[in-house]
């Protein structure tokens, strides 16, 4: 059986372009920063591809929940119920995409979020 997803109906806050000047209206969907370059698109695509995996999103959320503190990969296996090789594989993809940094401390790798990468994605995706 194939799983299906039902999308919610448009909300009352969704407006047509001609309603853009109405109080409480939402602007039409234009990118605040304008079109992106080929290099920006390549970088963003790499980050978004890394984020497109549910397990990577979960791993990233655990690291991001610690703020600026590094998270040991040893703490992620039990927390998420996955093996160390699986953690290492997914974390490598997040590091390669520039979303996390990795620091080796003895036997274990420690990861921290790269705030600038998320700021870059946020600016690119911001609608205004």
The biggest beta sheet reads: 3 strands, antiparallel
Overall morphology: elongated
Per DSSP, what share of the residues sits in E-state strands of 2 or more residues?
Answer: 5-15%
Please report the total strand number as a whole number: 3
Name the structural class: alpha+beta
Output the helix-strand order: HHEHHEEH
The total of helices stands at 5
Keywords: DNA-binding, Transcription, Transcription regulation
Pfam families: HTH_5
InterPro entries: ArsR-like_HTH, ArsR_HTH, HTH_ArsR_DNA-bd_dom, HTH_MetalResp_TranReg, WH-like_DNA-bd_sf, WH_DNA-bd_sf
Protein name: Metalloregulator ArsR/SmtB family transcription factor
Q: Would you mind describing this structure in some detail?
A:
The chain has 128 residues and is an alpha+beta fold. It has a domain at 49-128: Orthogonal Bundle (Arc Repressor Mutant, subunit A), CATH 1.10.10.10. The chain is built from 5 helices and 3 strands. The protein has helices at residues 38-51, 54-64, 74-80, 84-96, 115-125; strands at residues 71-72, 100-105, 108-113. Strands 1-3-2 form a 3-stranded antiparallel beta sheet. Strand 2 (100-105) and strand 3 form a beta hairpin. Helix 2 (54-64) crosses helix 4. The longest helix is centred in the middle third of the chain and has 14 residues, at 38-51. The N and C termini lie far apart (40 Å). Keywords: DNA-binding, Transcription, Transcription regulation. Residues 1-24 are annotated as: Disordered. This is Metalloregulator ArsR/SmtB family transcription factor. Residues 36-128 form the HTH arsR-type domain. It holds the Pfam family HTH_5.
């Amino acid at each position: 059986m194939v799983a299906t997803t039902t999308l919610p109906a448009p909300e009352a806050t969704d407006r047509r372009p001609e309603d853009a000047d109405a109080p409480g209206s939402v602007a039409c969907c234009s990118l605040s920063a304008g079109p992106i370059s080929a290099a920006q698109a390549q970088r963003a695509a790499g980050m978004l591809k890394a984020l497109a995996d549910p397990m990577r999103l979960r791993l990233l959320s655990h690291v991001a929940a610690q703020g600026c503190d590094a998270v040991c990969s040893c703490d992620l296996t039990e927390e998420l119920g996955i093996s160390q090789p699986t953690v290492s594989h997914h974390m490598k993809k997040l590091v390669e995409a520039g979303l996390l940094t990795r620091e080796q401390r003895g036997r274990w790798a420690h990861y921290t979020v790269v705030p600038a990468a998320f700021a870059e994605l946020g600016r690119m995706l911001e609608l205004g």
